[in-house]
Write a structure and sequence with these properties.
Number of strands of chain B: 10
Radius of gyration of chain B: 13 Å
Largest sheet of chain A: 7 strands, mixed
Oligomer: heterodimer
Number of helices of chain A: 0
Order of helices and strands of chain A: EEEEEEEEEEE
Shape of chain A: globular
Radius of gyration of chain A: 13 Å
Strand content of chain B: over 45%
Shape of chain B: globular
Chain lengths: 113, 111
């Protein structure tokens, strides 16, 4: 089954404790992206990757890191989480660019205390 | 400066046609306009995509005027299960390859 998976689905952590949210797709897509979703603000792009080893900042990259060492994986790293990073996070992938149909993961709800 | 503008919410009744408009004054000249649907606690799901004029698929139509400064998603004969948030997605040149989602329109369908 074609899908985008994210782990964990729920995470409660404390300020400053490094964490990684994993994202994996099995569709051989080149483009992958991370979004955060906050009430009233819609979906905002954090980082995106056009291909392996190619990443770029989205609209709200501060406080986040990503890597794309393999085509299928695109982990999101919070080196020192802060409460303002409490949000719902979505990973997405698409064939060649973000404007193509994107397939979204189920979301990761992160709470930073 | 708003990148895209959508109505915050809309109400409709079952069986009616619903039109949701997204304004995007300055989008990339050679990129598509895409619409997504999102249910609570789920990731967004692709509905339809177009470049100009009119596109229709099995669930919706998309109307794009010649100046491409706006687009209208049309849902024919909505049902209760169409209650969701609808987002338009565009590429705005001054933001490079970043994707910009609208804030979303909450559609409530009543019986």
């Amino acid at each position: 089954e074609a899908q985008v998976t994210q782990n964990p689905r729920y995470l409660i952590t404390v300020t400053g404790k490094k964490l990684t949210v994993t994202c994996s797709q099995n569709m051989n897509h080149e483009y992958m992206s991370w979004y955060r979703q906050d009430p009233g603000l819609g979906l905002r792009q954090i980082y995106y990757s056009m291909n392996v080893e190619v990443t770029d900042k989205g609209d709200v990259p501060e406080g986040y890191k990503v890597s794309r060492k393999e085509k299928r994986n695109f982990p999101l790293i919070l080196e020192s989480p802060s409460p303002n990073q409490t949000s719902l996070y979505f990973c997405a992938s698409s064939l060649a660019s973000g404007i193509n149909e994107q397939f979204f993961g189920p979301g990761t709800r992160l709470t930073v205390l | 400066l708003a990148k895209t503008t959508q109505p915050i919410s809309m109400d409709s009744y079952e069986g009616q046609e619903v039109n949701i408009t997204c304004s995007h004054n300055n989008i990339a000249t050679n990129d598509y306009i895409t619409w997504y649907q999102q249910f609570p606690s789920q990731g967004p799901r692709f509905i339809i995509q177009g470049y100009k004029t009119k596109v229709t698929n099995e669930v919706a139509s998309l109307f794009i005027p010649a100046d491409r400064k706006s687009s209208t998603l049309s849902l024919p004969r909505v049902s209760l299960s169409d209650t969701a948030v609808y987002y338009c997605l565009v590429v705005i040149p001054e933001y490079g390859n970043k994707l910009v989602f609208g804030a979303g329109t909450i559609l409530r369908v009543k019986s």
